[in-house]
Specification:
The chain has 268 residues and is mainly alpha-helical. The chain has one domain. Helices cover 74% and strands 0% of the residues. The chain has 12 helices and no strands. Helix 1 runs parallel beside helix 11, helix 7 packs parallel to helix 9 and helix 7 runs antiparallel to helix 12. The longest helix is centred in the middle third of the chain and has 30 residues. It is globular. The two termini are 20 Å apart. Keywords: Antibiotic resistance, Cell membrane, Cell shape, Cell wall biogenesis/degradation, Hydrolase, Membrane, Peptidoglycan synthesis, Transmembrane, Transmembrane helix.
């Protein structure tokens, strides 16, 4: 992380928190911003660790609901089914993430042109799905059928390609499987907790030999900024998408990806 500064770390943390839970690809934004700012971290660990700030924001906002679910699980079939649905949706990411970890981090994370292209393609998909999604049959994120949860889990794995967006993939998948716009976002929130925590733990283990203790200050700054920004975004997002849908985020992706392609084509 030798080219980083506290200011750059704060900017990237803010960017992470603002984009993690909206379907625009936080990883794509951070990697492109890091590329243009000359930022580099050992094993791309900074980019993964600060995601925990966003996870902590979700955990804080939904803590009461989650405590209630786990407290009721021993005697409430609906609570047990919800917990199982999240675990089932998480499972494909565990298997594919472990098997493809080296290729994802060493190749895909180092290809800005791919990231920009995926931003554009994902934006087009989001705009289209926002218009053609089937009628809602699943209005409650806590009662998705288990086969539906598993399908969303496989769709989430597309987000291992930086620029696709984990939240974007899960939201699009849920919408096409009959979820309401609000339920699609909420299930994406719940699924983010084990997915991102698992990615952090595994990435930390894989990069334990290249971690730079001198970068802890920058990581802490990025973590705190990500937490604050994510709390604000999550509170706003559910109300917005319930009324307006996801098209805005699709057009944003297309614009950012297009600008990035032009700038990269200029050799910058």
């Amino acid at each position: 992380m030798e080219h980083s500064t506290t200011l750059v770390a704060a900017i990237l943390g803010l960017l992470e928190g603002l984009t993690e839970f909206i379907p625009v690809s936080s990883t794509g934004h951070i990697l492109l911003a890091g590329h243009f700012l000359g930022f580099d971290s050992a094993g791309k660990t900074f980019e993964v660790v600060i995601q925990l700030g966003a996870v902590l924001a979700i955990l804080t906002l939904y803590l009461g609901q989650l405590v209630s679910v786990f407290r009721n699980a021993p005697h409430d079939p609906a609570a047990r089914r919800f917990i199982l649905s999240v675990l089932i949706a998480f499972l494909p990411a565990v298997v594919i993430g472990v098997l493809a970890h080296g290729f994802i981090k060493d190749v895909l994370f180092e290809t800005p042109m791919l990231i920009a292209s995926m931003l554009i393609l994902g934006g087009v998909a989001l705009v289209l799905v926002d218009r053609i999604a089937p009628p809602t049959t699943q209005p409650d994120a806590m009662s998705f059928p288990l086969p539906m949860a598993l399908k969303i889990g496989f769709i989430q794995c597309l987000a291992m390609i930086p620029g696709v967006s984990r939240s974007g993939a899960t939201i699009v998948g849920a919408l096409m499987l009959g979820a309401s716009k609000r339920a699609a976002a909420e299930f994406s929130f719940f699924l983010s907790m084990p997915t991102m925590a698992g990615a952090f733990a595994y990435d930390l283990y894989k990069n334990r030999d290249v971690l730079d203790g001198s970068a802890l200050g920058e990581i802490a700054v990025g973590f705190i900024m990500a937490f604050i920004a994510a709390v604000i975004v999550v509170k706003w997002l559910l109300g917005y998408v319930s009324k307006h849908g996801y098209a805005l985020f699709g057009w944003w992706r297309i614009a950012v990806g297009g600008v990035a392609l032009v700038v990269l084509g200029m050799g910058i």
